[in-house]
Write a structure and sequence with these properties.
Blueprint lengths: L1 H37 L1 H7 L4 H28 L2 H19 L5 H14 L5 H12 L4 H29 L10 H29 L18 H8 L2 H19 L3 H9 L3 H29 L1 H21 L7 H21 L3 H4 L7 H12 L2 H15 L4 H27 L1 H4 L6
Helix pairs in contact: 1-4, 1-6, 1-7, 1-8, 2-8, 3-5, 3-6, 3-16, 3-17, 4-5, 4-8, 6-7, 6-16, 7-8, 7-12, 7-14, 10-14, 10-16, 10-17, 10-18, 11-12, 12-13, 12-14, 13-14, 13-18, 17-18
Length: about 425
């Protein structure tokens, strides 16, 4: 009987831990990313900035993040995720208070640089390592699929709730809403995200163990040596995985354009554009979790190939401009299609560490290397999107953008095929570690 109770307690702790990682993994990015994605048209008007200027703020975020990714990896291999995640969440929430004050463009840009440090240095690699440990050697796809699928569900709930609050704070006839009314509604949304981020920091502190119980095949954290870092850098599979993440993340960043695209090319108003962005987020939990399960069944790399193909097809449809402006349902369907591919990739691309035979003890370090390469779109995608949509009005700039996104999807597809060829575990599943 005691054995059964012990097993049930262990299962409860595992469920509670992954739930906490899911909530924390999305809460920390709500302020810098979800607000700008879902409420972009309103944000641009209230802050009185252009899409290119917002993209410049994201660029500073990306530059700071690039500096923070690599040292964040060894930190995650050395210290408890309880401390790292909690501190990151608290500091990120402090930035939300300033965000709600509607700062100048300079202040906004500095704020995004601050978030580049707070959301990456202590957070990202710690989250990925904790998830890999949770999944064990047999369920990497499932573990990462649950993480990103759960993050997607949480993001979709947040988006839907805040869109409803935003809508309720505006006049019934949106065309009569003044800039001040729209600004007040946006500030309320920002404060909701701020309070939620701080609350999640408390949950992490209470529910994530300071010293997790050792699991079979998972070594205890130790001091990272220069030799161990070099051993990761020498793995070609790690560099290819970085390129795969880069191409996938470019598609993810491109999804920020869905709301603005719907307004410029299909005549959506602010609330309709926000709802379309929320639709994209609702696809995420199903796509990420489904891709994770599929990855454990057919192999992570094969699943990545399928997802890149889906994204490529959807981007080409938008790039060709073949959808009539009156057919909003076709827009919604293609947004859902592309989102399925994008979030499927997010649910499985970190599971490739197992195929690449990266030791669990060096997961954080490997995450640092892959992330330095993979998340460079944080630097260039904002200015690229802003330049194209500001200089080519209407649907044309968006079509150019989706053509570029299609090119990255094709490059990601090629990189994944090369990863399969290079990695024994992909060519022969029996040879994997």
């Amino acid at each position: 009987m005691s054995g059964v109770m012990s097993e049930q307690t262990s299962s409860l702790h595992r469920a509670r831990l992954i739930l906490t990682l899911i909530i924390a993994g999305e809460a920390v990015y709500g302020l810098p990313f979800i607000v700008a994605r879902v409420f972009r048209p309103t944000l641009l008007d209230v802050f009185q900035i252009t899409n290119l200027q917002l993209g410049t703020a994201f660029t500073l975020y990306g530059i700071v993040a690039m500096v923070a990714y690599f040292p964040g990896g060894p930190l995650a291999d050395r210290f408890s995720p309880r401390w790292l995640l909690s501190i990151a969440l608290v500091t990120t929430s402090l930035g939300g208070i300033y965000y709600a004050s509607v700062p100048s463009l300079t202040g906004l840009t500095i704020l995004f640089g601050f978030w580049g440090l707070s959301t990456i240095l202590l957070f990202w690699a710690a989250l990925i390592r904790a998830t890999r440990e949770w999944g064990g050697s047999e369920s990497q796809g499932t573990g990462f699929g649950i993480l990103d699928g759960g993050r997607g569900l949480f993001a979709a709930l947040l988006a839907s709730v805040t869109v409803a609050v935003f809508d309720a704070l505006l006049p019934a006839d949106l065309e009569t809403a003044s800039l001040e009314q729209r600004g007040t509604a946006l500030q309320t949304v920002i404060l909701i995200f701020t309070g939620m981020t701080a609350l999640v920091a408390v949950v992490v502190w209470l529910w994530v163990p300071d010293k997790p119980e050792p699991s079979p095949g998972v070594p205890i954290r130790h001091a990272v040596t220069l030799e161990s870092v070099v051993s990761v850098l020498k793995k070609p599979a790690v560099w290819l995985q970085g390129l795969i993440v880069l191409c996938a993340y470019t598609g993810f960043k491109g999804a920020d354009d869905f709301g603005l695209f719907s307004r410029d090319a299909f005549g959506f108003d602010d609330v309709e554009a926000a709802r379309l962005s929320a639709v994209s987020l609702w696809v995420r939990p199903f796509a990420a979790f489904g891709a994770g399960l599929l990855g454990d069944r057919i192999g992570g790399a094969r699943c990545v190939v399928i997802c890149f193909t889906i994204v490529l097809v959807g981007d080409v449809v938008f790039a060709l401009g073949i959808l009539p402006p009156s057919a909003s349902w076709l827009l919604i369907m293609n947004v859902a299609w592309i989102s399925a591919g994008i979030f499927g990739l997010r649910g499985v691309y970190f599971a490739l560490f197992e195929d690449g035979q990266v030791p669990v003890a060096l997961t954080g370090t490997a995450v640092g290397v892959v992330s330095v390469i993979g998340y460079t779109p944080d630097i260039f995608m904002g200015p690229l999107m802003g330049y194209l949509t500001d200089n080519y009005p209407g649907s044309l700039g968006h079509e150019y953008l989706f053509a570029a996104l299609a090119g990255f999807a094709a490059m990601g597809l090629a990189a994944t095929i090369a990863f399969q060829w290079l990695t024994p575990a992909c060519r022969d599943p029996e040879s994997g570690s």
